[in-house]
Design a protein that fits this description.
Keywords: Coiled coil. This is Small, acid-soluble spore protein N. It comes from Heyndrickxia oleronia. It is a single chain. This protein is mainly α and 85 residues long. It has one domain. The chain contains three helices and no strands. The longest helix has 25 residues. The protein starts with a helix and ends with a helix. The relative contact order is 0.17.
Length: 85
């Protein structure tokens, strides 16, 4: 079932992207000398993860779709938090 495999792989890529994004976000140090570089890295992770979510949404099951929507919401919270600093 290649379709099912692609669906699962797309979802797992989005899941992994969220984990990496969470890792980068949790290591963000606002008073650090390289804060700008950290923000740039975070922005890249946000963009990459958002694209992975969009790709996964195209083939996601209903259960996966709900989780992907949560990922989108989590990304929005991260972006809002960083923008409000």
């Amino acid at each position: 079932m290649p379709y099912h495999k692609n669906k699962q792989q797309a979802f797992q890529a989005a899941q992994q992207g969220m984990k990496q994004l969470d890792d980068v976000y949790s290591q963000l140090v606002r008073d650090s000398a390289d804060y700008g570089q950290q923000l740039k890295h975070l922005k890249n992770e946000v963009n990459e993860t958002y694209q992975q979510i969009e790709n996964a949404m195209e083939v996601a099951s209903e259960t996966q779709r709900q989780q992907l929507e949560k990922f989108r919401s989590d990304i929005e919270q991260i972006v809002n938090d960083v923008n409000n600093d």
